[in-house]
Structure formats: structure tokens, C-alpha cells
Amino acid sequence: MTSTTTNPKPAGRGRMKLAARCRLVTEAPAFGIVVFCAILFNAALMGLETYSGLAGEYGLVLGGAENCCLALFTLEILLRIGAQADQPKAFFRDPWNLFDLAVVASAFLPFVRENTTILRLLRLARVLRTARFLPHLRILLIAVGRSLPGTASFLFVGALVVYVYAMIGWVCFAEADPEHYGSVGRAGLTLFLLTTLDGLTDAVRAGLQISRLSILFYASYALLASFVLVNVLIGVVLNSLDEAREIEEENNRIPAQGGEGADLKERIATARRALDEIEAGLAAAAPPSPSPEGLPERRLEAASHSGS
Fold first, then answer.
1. What is the pLDDT of the chain when averaged over all its residues?
2. 305 vs 132: CA distance, rounded Å
3. 178-208 burial: b if 16+ Cβ within 10 Å, else e
4. pLDDT by residue (tens digit) across 1-26?
5. How far is 171 from 184, CA to CA, in rounded Å?
6. Which positions ≥6 away from 15 have C-beta within 8 Å?
């Protein structure tokens, strides 16, 4: 029984040691700082490559620095995978790990390396990895992702409002101001630009020359599109931001609980191995017990000796 239970343990201990060593590196503050600086350095390299003079004169230096950054990012991913060697599924459950793995691994794909445009876009995606080391930026990105459904509804309502007012503007101002309201498309573009209230004063003055009732048109549109709808969008984003904070706090609590559970399991396994070794040592040191068949013979010999 002891041999069957101890056979798979060396491999498990090896994975646990590998995970512990890699986790010691990845959880060090210096590791995050180095990777963060490498991401910013890689972004600076991309900016320098946009200058044709620098790219032509120092092309080899920039290429070598890019390869060094790629090697560092690859080493980082390998260390993060090794840190989860004792529980590999946990690595792939983290969306940020999947994003980092996809961005780094795509640089080694043959058709990607041959396409300069796609390769530059993927290198640009590495800049987004700074969110991993900036909790507040990570919360903002999560909030933007969670606000997309609400933003889609907002865009639909906003497009409907612009279309209705564009039709009204075309009916009322098409003949007097064909440059801005000559068609529904032009009217919609004009009203969309007025959503930011930029140029609203000039539009109102031009409308007053056509009809004094145009003030009602522009005032109602500015109130509805620039104040009501924009405040609704702000409310959607703030609500998503609160949800993102809750998600981030929950994700921070789960690893802590998981780490405590892993330490407890490791202690239990160590205690079991120690008990098995003590049991094996006691079994080897104990003298062999007499067999039941030899007991009657020993009793007869003892009786004969006593009689003589």
C-alpha cells in the first residue's frame, strides 16, 4: 500500500517545487517593475521606428532591441506558466494570462512575422499589457468592457434622436440652408457635430435668420442630445466602473483564499508522508513475531526441562 501511494508523489513534489520557485520570482516586486519598464521601452521603440531617418540609420539596433524585448516577454510568460505548474488550469482561467500568451505567442507565427502591418498591430497590443501592472487602469478597461451593452443601447437611442431631428431639420431648413440640411445625411452630420455644442451659437444665429421658431428646435435638441443622453452614458459608465471594482476585489480575494488552501494541502501531504516514513521505520525495526505453529513445541520443551 505504501509503494502504490508514494509512486505519484515525486512528480507532484517536483511540480510544487517548480511552481514555488517560479512564484517566488513572479511575485517579487522587481519582476513586475522590470516587465513594466520593458513594455514602455518596447512602446518607445515602436515610436522611434516611425522616423524614417532613425529607422534607416539604426535599423539593426532597433531590431536587436525589439528581439531582446520579445525574449524578455517570452521568459515572463514561461515563468508565469511555471508558477501555475501545480494547478495548470488556473493559468488559463485568468483572462489577462490568455491575452498575454496570445500577444507574445503570435510574434512566433510565420505568417504574422512576414506581415509587417499585422506584426506592428500586435506589438502595439503589448502596450495594453501595462494594465496588468496598473490596477486602476485594469479597472477602467474592465469597466469599458462591461459598459458595452449599455453603450450599444445608448447609441441606438442617440441615433434615433439624431434621425428624428434630422428629418425635422430637412423639412424646415432644406431650402434656406441646403449646405447643412439639404439631405437627411447632411442634416444628421450637422446635428451629430452639434452634440458637443461646438458651433451651436453659429447654428442658432443662422436659424434665427430663417425663422424665430428655430430656437425651439436647437434648444430642445441641445437639451435632449447634449445633456440628457450624455448624462445617461455617464451613468452607464459609472455603474460599470462600480461593477469592475467589485470584480477586481473579488479576484484579489480568491487567490489569497486559494493560496491558503494550497498551503494547508501541502502541510497535510507533508504530514502524511512523515507518518508513512515513521510507520515504515517502526515496521523495519520491530523483531519478527513467533509463528503460531512453533508455540506448542516451545511449551513442551519448557515442560520437559522443568520436570528434569
1. 78
2. 88
3. eebbeeeebbbebbeebbeeeebeebbebbe
4. 444 444 444 446 778 888 888 888 88
5. 9
6. 85, 86
